[in-house]
Write a structure and sequence with these properties.
201 residues, alpha+beta, Jelly Rolls, Arc Repressor Mutant, subunit A, four-stranded antiparallel beta sheet, 12 strands, 26% strand, globular
Length: 201
């Protein structure tokens, strides 16, 4: 498999594709990217970002289960990927992608989903009020990474920090903390014991 040496191989069997290895990345770990192929998320969520020369992060979106991402699929400079949760990934070489119509078709479907996600993020960035941006971001997150909560509402499966949310909509951590407190008082959201956001609306 044509893969840079720095891509680790903490392996798990993949029943859906016999013989293909899964690569494990812990929450918060940077996922190495090389141009000779792409990753596909088997389990978990990867956050995709761009960092400028000042070290400021621009959120590009999230790769959830079955989604493909990598340098081969982007022209963005300083493109980075980080495991937002514990993540297991599959690696495909460019040759595999070009020779398999099944994989190519699957990849196209998920690229379309990522395009819609990116357009939603661009639309959110265009909103003037920070409160509106946060509400729309939570709505998008509910769709992208929500699961039913036992007590009602939708629980975000990734535990997002206030800084994660601030970076996503171009504001400060302090502002996010204040707004989330207001949303809790309005019962729009709850925070569970594991610090995951539950969206009630």
């Amino acid at each position: 498999m044509l893969l840079a040496d720095n891509i680790q191989s903490n392996l798990l069997p993949d029943k859906s594709n016999e013989g293909r290895r899964l690569h494990y990345y812990d929450k918060g770990e940077t996922i190495p990217l090389v141009p000779e192929g792409v990753w596909q998320v088997y389990r978990g969520i990867a956050q995709l970002s761009q960092f400028n020369e000042r070290g400021e992060e621009t959120l590009l979106g999230w790769a959830i289960a079955s989604t493909f991402f990598g340098l081969w699929l982007t022209q963005v400079e300083d493109y980075q990927a980080k495991a937002l949760t514990e993540s297991y990934l599959k690696w495909y070489t460019v040759a595999e992608l070009e020779s398999s119509t099944t994989i190519s078709s699957l990849m196209l479907n998920h690229i379309i989903r990522r395009l819609r996600q990116t357009e939603a993020l661009v639309a959110i960035a265009g909103l003037k009020r920070v409160e509106d941006r946060l509400i729309q971001l939570l709505t998008l997150l509910k769709t992208e990474m929500g699961e039913p909560s036992e007590g009602g509402g939708t629980r975000l499966i990734a535990r997002l920090t206030h800084q994660n949310l601030a970076n996503s909509i171009g504001t400060t951590r302090v502002t996010i903390t204040r707004l989330l407190g207001e949303f809790q008082r309005q019962r729009l959201i709850n925070i569970d014991n594991e610090r995951h956001i539950i969206i009630n609306s």
